[in-house]
UniProtKB/TrEMBL annotation:
It comes from Streptomyces hintoniae. One of its GO terms (molecular function) is phosphoenolpyruvate mutase activity. The gene is aepX. NCBIfam families: PEP_mutase. Pfam families: PEP_mutase (PF13714). This is phosphoenolpyruvate mutase. It is an enzyme of class 5 (isomerase).
Amino acid sequence: PGRTTSRAAALRHLLDRPELSFLMEAHNGLSAKLVERAGFEGIWASGLSIAAALGVRDSNEASWTQVLEVAEFMSDATRIPILLDGDTGYGNFNSVRRLVRKLEQRGVAGVCVEDKLFPKMNSFVRGGAQPLADAEEFAGKIGAAKSAQHDPDFVVVARTEALIAGQGLAEALRRAELYRCAGADAILVHSARSDADEVRAFKAEWGDRLPVVIVPTKYYRTPTEVFAEDGFSTVVWANHLMRSALRAMQITASTIFAEQHLRNVEGAVAPLAEVFEIQGEDELAEAEQRWLPQR
Ligand code: SPV
Ligand code: MG
């Protein structure tokens, strides 16, 4: 078994096990390493955060192969499984089949695909008013994704935006059931409300048909124990490393700009020694001893 097989199995276990699991956002190799070092068992490769870090909008302005490159750096930088936020799959069922094969090749453990239209927009912009994909067509996309994987453990999460789009609980459940029948491994149900009522109502109706993943970015006040008691599978902390990096970089840039010296900044940023340690400079020094002629 290669790295894909074991990491996909690890992600599948996180989704399937009875205890609540957590996926922490990362958006590049460095943030992925920090997620792993913090102790998390899995990574959410956030579309929003990757886009923001690349300086573009969460509207498929970065091409899917550019996202794939970022995911590959994250995969190479870590051992824990990565669930890529694959947006709408960057096209139709055929685009998704190719995406799944490429993700497997690069050691990404799974993909989450959402029932919106390409180019997507973020669920929290413009009040979430956005057209959804035709449910039957999207179910075909999920089936196509599942048919494309070589590793039986590769995970396909079907995400419904029905609640975000204001289409109500019944429509969210109808869509989730279609996606389950199409072969989805888990359902991500997203909500933009500041309380967890609608995702909890979804879970109560849904039961245990498939693991349910949630993203409490807006309902962050709900205690995590509530999610565990309700039997949710996985909580995604979706964008908090990108947002913390943004704030930290803003403060450092404006301080250095204003002061034109580094004295007040040096103690507030990570020492270079730590940067080299995270990059694995020691390993390179050892490898040079071993592989370069020693004169
Ligand atoms: C992401 O992190 O890109 C997500 C979650 O898809 S959200 O931004 O809430 O849509
Ligand atoms: Mg996204």
